[in-house]
Structures are given as structure tokens and as C-alpha cells.
Amino acid sequence: MPPKDLGPLLHGAGQRFRADLADPARVQAEVLQSILRQNRDSAFGRRHAFCAIGDGAAYAAAVPVARYEALAADIARQAQGETNILTTQDVLAFEETGGSSDGGKLIPYTADGLAGFQYGLLAWLDDLCTHHPGLGEGPFYWAISPACRAARATAGGIPVGMPDAAYLGAEVGMAVAQMLAVPADVGAISDVDEWRACTLRHLFASTNMSMISVWSPSFLTELLRYAVIGREALARRIAQDDPARAAEVLAQLSRAAPDYRRLWPRLQVISCWDQASAAVGAATLRTMFPQVLVQGKGLLATEGLVTIPLAGFAYPALSLRSGYFEFVDAAGVCFGAHNLAQGQQYQLLMTTHSGLYRYALGDQVVVRGHAARTPLLEFIGRSGATSDLCGEKLSDAFVAGRIAALGQPFAMLAPDAGDGRQRYALLLDAAAGDAARADAAAAALERSLHDNPQYAYARKLGQLDAVVSVRCLHPLQDWLAERMARGQRLGDIKQPALLSNTAWRAWVSVAAPEPAA
């Protein structure tokens, strides 16, 4: 069980993490010097004179802020098998993610880079096991998406993609694998329908599950929706091994509101994103599982781990040894982790042992307090996700806050240029209400968007029409399918608040207009 089996392997990771919180300036200085010292003889380190950099100010002066495109040529050389380019350590693997101007991005991982992930993730697990002894009462569901991508390697023979256990380290990863309610090899199933059926059979056959860990809350709510829709076939599969359990599952999933507590009485924790555009989905899970702790995951990007949740704090804490972090305010002034202002909004820069230097993650955070002297951060959206039809410059972070107030189970704002007019369309789930309710939500959003003076000015000048509602048949399914078609793993897909172009009309299924009364 987790506290008994994982505890010795975690070696007090949570306690060490909490001890670091008292002195973020010292810890971050140590991390920066470690990265510079280790990589001073790499091509990048020689080019930027790492050997002469003594502190964070000198580092900021010597190394420019970089987006992926600035590092792409060096990463491509590493993918070809060249060494000593960005790091002196070998690249063990790449992970692929979206977001560059050319499409996909290859993110390198070294041994010390992976150790940065493990520092935060093991502390999180240790903290959970310490404060929630009920986790020892049953197995975990650690969501693993269908493969959907063929295993491949770069031209230099370096793997693209890693098993989830690699982020936890060999020992802990193996222990977690032995505790899984759904076997890890289910993630190797490439057909989504087959993967879903197999996942649900294992998931609902488990009677003593203690924890569910997913990325997006919509990942879990969609999975449960499919369980309800296909409950009879699901029950038949479970009945092959346990007829009594099958009857219990069928009875609960046939109810208007299934009581999942009856199916998983030992479930203690659901871990998922719960900030920015994921806030509504997390709130839905809290309604569905009222006696379970739905804990936000904090901020974890493919490029690196930024924050983790800790018991006793309302917001996640900066993971001080997962990388070297800089925070840029609206005026372009750069700050260290030790001198951030509460309530202030910042853009994140991250430097990692894997060879990303002053890397602009594109994430915006707000300081919501401190754990000892280390900032607690709320992720509020992507700084690079914007829409600008005629100078209004809407950002994902701004729109996310306004959409959250609508209380809709699904909502996205998208630019629309129908009938030669420029405007925004609010995409909503048709199952959540009729046309009148959808129009009311669009009108409420329209009023709140006027908090952006550029939007208000564009509306005043008639450059933009008012927001219109678009009722969609199954918008979440459509969004997930569109992202998967672009190579993203199902469990990694985030739902943005704002789309940046009109391409949504190619993949969304719009509900037919309601007949006139």
C-alpha cells in the first residue's frame, strides 16, 4: 500500500522540499550555479561564457530570453546524435509537444533534467501519503493515454517519448506500476475505442481504488460519460470475472446521477489540473465526488515542473530545485523567486539541466501567498495565446477569468468572421441548455469582455459585432479528437479558454437551430 511501500522509496522527499521553502534565494542560486558549472563546456555554454557568470544578474545579461525557435537549431543537432551542444550530459530522450511556429517541438531530457521532475513529483507523492493515510487502502488509477503515436526515434537514434514512470525514477516508478488499477500496458493500445473499453473494464472492476491521477479533469469526466453511455457492454465485460460487481456497476451507472462513492468507497484523492480553463472541469469533479479531495496538480509543462500542491496551502508552491526560474512583470522587469510581490502577475522563464536556457514557457502566473518564503503561484493562462481581429488583443488568461464566471461545463471563445462581419463566438455544449440560455451566456460574456478597453473601443467603433453563442453537439469530444489528430496524447490535452483562429468551424459539430415557437 502507498505509505508502506512507497514511503521508504521516497526517503522523506516531502520534508526536504518543505525545508527548502525557507530560503528560495539560496536554493535557486545553487540550482543556477549547478547548471552553469555542469554545462560550461557545452557549445552553448562556451558561446555564452558560462564560466564567467557569477549570479542571476550576470546570467540575465549574458543569455537572451529564448523561445523554442531560438534553440531549435541546437536541438536539431542533438536529435541528429551530436553531443555537447546544449548540455554536456547525453540526451536520454525527447518528448514532443505543440506550440512552435513550425508545429511540433522536441524537448530534450537528460538524467539531471529528469531529476528535476523527480524532486517535485516525489515530494508531492510523499506529502500525499503523509497527510492522507487512506491512500494505503487500495490501488491507484494513474491515467495513461492510448499510444496513438508509433514508437520512433530521431535520426540520431534517441527515443521520442518516455513512459510515465520515467518521471518518477526507476524505483518509485516500478512501485507505482505494481499498484495500478489499470495495468500500464493498456496505454500501449493505439485504438482509442479499444483503449477506452479496456480502461473502463479495469477501472470499474476495482472495488478498493484509493487515488485517481489524471491531467485534465475533462479526461476523467469524458471517461465516466462513456461508462454511462456504454454501461451495458461494460457490465457484460466485468461479469466475465465478477457478476456481482457487474450488477452493482450497472445499477449505479443507470442512475440519473451515479453515486461513485458506492463504487469506490475507499477513494481519497483525485489529482488533476484545476486552474485557469480547467477550473470549471475541476469544479464538476468536486460535485460528482463530494467526499473526495480533488487536488490541483500545480503547473507542470513538458519542458519542466514548476509548482506542486502541498497539504495546508491553497495554491501550489514553486518547485525550487526543478529548475532556475525568473519572473517577468508587465514592464519587462525580471525578478527572482525570492522577491516576488503578492498579487502581482508574471510571465515565467525557466532554465533546466536538460538544456533550456531562459526559456519562455508562455505561462502567466499570479503570486497568491507564500509557503515560508517561497511563492505560491496560480496559473492563469498562456501569455502567447491571443486573438487580435482588429486591435482588441484578447488573451487566454483574460478570457479564462470571464468564462469561468459563466459556470458552463464547456466554454471556449473563438474568433468568427461569418457573413463578412468580425466577432467572437462562444462555443457551448448544447446539452447544457437551450438557445435562450446559450444567448444569455454570450450576452454576459460580451459585457465582461468590455473590461478590456481595446475590446470595448472596437465594439464602440463598430469594428466588432457582439459575441454570439454557438451550441455544439459534443464540443469536448470534437476538441480532443482535433488535438489527437495533431499528435497530442489524450491525457495531455488542455482546454484553452480562447482559440486564436477560425479553424474551429472545420472540426466542431454545430447543433441544428431550435424550431421557432
UniProtKB/TrEMBL annotation:
<dbReference type="InterPro" id="IPR055377">
    <property type="entry name" value="GH3_M"/>
</dbReference>
<feature type="domain" description="GH3 middle">
    <location>
        <begin position="319"/>
        <end position="382"/>
    </location>
</feature>
<protein>
    <recommendedName>
        <fullName>GH3 middle domain-containing protein</fullName>
    </recommendedName>
</protein>
<dbReference type="Pfam" id="PF23571">
    <property type="entry name" value="GH3_M"/>
</dbReference>
<dbReference type="GO" id="GO:0005737">
    <property type="term" value="C:cytoplasm"/>
</dbReference>
<dbReference type="Pfam" id="PF03321">
    <property type="entry name" value="GH3"/>
</dbReference>
<dbReference type="GO" id="GO:0016881">
    <property type="term" value="F:acid-amino acid ligase activity"/>
</dbReference>
<dbReference type="InterPro" id="IPR004993">
    <property type="entry name" value="GH3"/>
</dbReference>
